Amino acid sequence: MALPSHLPINEIILEPTENIEGMKCIGQEITDELEYAPVKLFINRYIRNKYVAPADEKGNQQVKIVSLDFRPIPKCIAGTTLLSQIISDNFVDHLPLYRQIQ
């Protein structure tokens, strides 16, 4: 699902914490997440570089990439602040979801 192109984007580059010395960068995984700040929406763009190690004696190669396990719901485009705003609008302010969408 494409996010609106008019929203501002915060690019966050994540690198693996493991040793990547001698590895070659083979690409990037880009994950967009819709976030909310009072009275505005913005996009956090996580750019994760993928690295591959040289082939070992058996011809196997190992790929390293940072996991996105810190996100509240896997594969969800909503970030933590947007989810918390939706939940508080629904349960604290008694605002139904269909009215939040409008």
TrEMBL record:
<protein>
    <submittedName>
        <fullName>Uncharacterized protein</fullName>
    </submittedName>
</protein>
<dbReference type="InterPro" id="IPR052344">
    <property type="entry name" value="Transposase-related"/>
</dbReference>
